[in-house]
Amino acid sequence: MVRPMFGVESEYAIAGVRGVEPMRREDLVNRIMRAARRQLAHLPDTCAHSGIFLANGARFYVDCGLHPEMTTPECVTPFEVARYIKAGERILENLTREVQAETGAGTEIMCFRCNVDYSGSCSTWGSHESYRHHADPAGLPDQLIPHLVTRVVYTGAGGFNPLVSWPEFCVAPRLMHIQNAISGDSTGNRGIFHTKNESLSGDGYHRLHIICGESLCSETAIVLKIGTTALVVAMAEEGLKPGAGLRLAAPLEALHAVASDITCKQKLRLVGGGEATAIEIQRRLLELAERNRAVLPPWAGAICALWRRTLYQLESGPDSAGLVLDWAIKRRLFHDRAARRGIPLGRFAFHNSIVQRLNAALASVGVNNREVRLSVITGPQSPIPEEAARAANLLAAEGLTWDDVERFLSLRDEFYQIDTRFGQIGPRGIFTALDRRGVLDHRVAAIDDVAAAMREPPSVGRAKLRGEAVRRLSGQSGAGCGWMGVYSPDGRTLDLSDPFATAEAWSAPPAPADDGDAAPDMPAEDLFGGDPGRLDRMLDAMGIRGRHGRTRTGAQGAPETTESPSR
User: Fold this and answer.
1) DSSP state of 216
2) Where in 436-503 does DSSP place strands (E)?
3) Helix/strand/coil for 359
């Protein structure tokens, strides 16, 4: 029987406003990290000076995109992963609350589970998964890609296509940024299957690193994302060939089709002929798992039952999952808001066609559609008077006017705000408010005692040893931590190269080195060494800043700009 181990690293958008002015990103993240070092038992991260490892075994740091990133400890059940994701978000909520209080009245600091940006920057925030395994990495793409493409029916976060300027609803908007079937890049030219294989473990282990996922709120969606993928990896590891007969003729085309299809019924072309829907492919994988329960982990039965129930709901249409899955909940919210604004969803296609015509005409004369108002386009100084006149005739034929288009564009902006606020961490988040009112049906009973997970590590594996060592050594000068070891002030090292280690094994301290070989002290009290502009200059020198896109607020960092050693 295989022994799965997995975890999730989540990037979060953060913004702060003092009065009416946005807080500087450098100042905001510096305050967050100082609060973390004050509040939490921790050790400095030996892989990244901006990071810390926590007593619950997790890692918290600020990436070069100036956004906080929380990585769960290594877990052995999907329910445990979900528990630590929720624990990490509560830690972030507490940190933002403390920084908001110390900053003074009139300050609001917001942290979001965010996937895409609608400002035109093409920024995305990643939710990356890691799965420990012993399979041959070269054989995994054929076995995993059919699952990664079709699991979107229950793992999609919902929202709008970020690559267009009109509200085109997507089951999984971040996946519109995926550009290849297979790729080793995680910040551009991303692939469905990511070839990175940094094991962060001793010999014999591999780590599958998946980047084609999204941050989610629904417990059901989180558990299914991790649980089903872990089972498919386990079946590949056992030689069961889960991708046999399910290979997609055009994986990238299929991914974008599934990510855009709210019916979940679009046929996908298979290698060798034939077609299947995403749900049909998922059901084939589910049935293979059910037939091979004997070689799968003990929790496989619970995941298969949830998997089967969710596919049954989706077969009945998106409304059947409208209280369960992120994308279906959002779609229901958008539908209700449109109805209240008096714009039937049936009119969206026509309004979108008008907006597309105007945008194409503006592009043809070199005008950015995001920088010109509708009143200018339709006025006497219009940069596209002929196209505006044609559009006016089309509107009149439908009994509509430019006022109807203006209302549609206002609704579009409302949709984008709803999408952002949906994943806001804390009581003001839309998902949190709906959940608090008891109107959702996403909860998974096995995800319990999140408060304890904020303090305590998992009970199995090296994460337990790491967390216990972090708690003991926290505050001691010279101590540090990484994924594969903990380093004590006296020079000893706790070996964590075995992910399933059950007992602490400390090495003897090394022989004293000559003073000339000693590394200089690197104080970790201030993320930017007391110089808030230091990171800006570093990024300029590294040629990275130019890749940061414009974002919704001046305080929200552009994510996924670099990849530091992570889970």
Assistant:
1) -
2) 480-481, 485-487, 493-495
3) helix
What torsion, rounded to 10 degrees, do the Cα atoms 268, 271, 273, 277 define?
Answer: -20
- C-beta separation of 29 from 42 below 8 A: no
For helices 385-397 and 348-364, give the axis angle rounded to 10 degrees: 170
In sequence order, the 6+-apart residues with CB closer than 8 A to the CB of 39 are 94, 95, 98
Rounded Cα–Cα distance for residues 564 and 97 (Å): 27
Three-state secondary-structure class, residue 250: coil
Extract long-range pairs of 96-105: CB within 8 Å, 24+ residues apart: 96/14, 96/32, 96/425, 96/426, 97/426, 98/35, 98/39, 99/16, 99/28, 99/31, 99/32, 99/35, 100/16, 102/31, 102/35, 103/16, 103/18, 103/23, 103/31, 104/18
Q: Over the stretch 104-153, which tens digit does the pLDDT of each residue have?
A: 888 999 999 999 988 777 788 989 999 999 999 999 999 999 999 999 99
Decide: 220 and 306 in contact? Cβ < 8 Å. Answer: yes
Residues near 541 by beta carbon (within 8 Å), at least 6 away in sequence: none
User: Are the CB atoms for 91 and 85 separated by under 8 Å?
Assistant: no
CB–CB of 183/190 below 8 Å?
yes
Catalytic-labelled residue, pool 63, 117, 261, 326: 63
pLDDT over 70 percentage in the chain:
89
Query: d(Cα 326, Cα 308) in Å, to the nearest integer?
Result: 18
Q: Note whether 467 and 456 are within 8 A (CB).
A: yes
The pLDDT tens digits for 58-114 are 999 988 778 899 999 999 999 999 999 999 999 999 999 999 999 888 899 999 999
Catalytic residue flag (residue 63): yes
